[in-house]
Structure formats: C-alpha cells, structure tokens
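Input chain follows. Return structure tokens only.
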Amino acid sequence: MPIIGPGYDDPEYDNYDPAWRDQDTPFRRWLVEKLTDAGSNCPAEIASIYAPANRYHGLSTTDLGNLATLASTTIDVVQAAHKADLADWTREQQLRDHPDLAVLDADLDRIRRHS
C-alpha cells in the first residue's frame, strides 16, 4: 500500500515508532476506559488515533478539548493523563538506554513492597 504524505524515513518522522499505532500505553488504557464509561461506540478506534499523537506530536489544545468532550471530563484531567503517559514513556526510554537500571528498579520496587 502506498504511503500518502511523508514516508517513515522523512525527517518529519524522526523517532516515530509505527508500533505506537497499537502499543499498549497508560494513556491508551485511560482513554479507552473513559470513552467506554462515556458511552462511546468506538473507544479503541479513537484511542488508536490519539494515543500515538500523545507521544509523537503531543496534544494540541483542540485535541485536549475534543477528548475532554468525548470522555465527559475536563481538559485538566485529559492533560494530567497525557503528562502521566509522557512520564511513563520517559521512564521506559531511560530503562531502554540503561538496562542495568531495570534490575535496580525491580529491586527498589521489591523493597518498597516489603516495607
């Protein structure tokens, strides 16, 4: 299938990961839950549009407003979920860049659970 618009090797797509289209992320899960609770007929489809945008482009004020309306919540709540997802993503990147931190992170989690 031909690509309409810039190809994946174009600078516009720097750091774009095609797996984001269906990657399970905290924001995607949150969005599907909120859209389902709000009675949406297609929560997974809406999430598949906005979850990658959340990480790749960020969410515009218009996106935040649209999602708040669709999820029957406020812009501040959507923005908080967006920021939480970006924080999770940052942590993922740090662990990917420094795999030794994954072992330390698991040890710290274990210590916290047993405290």
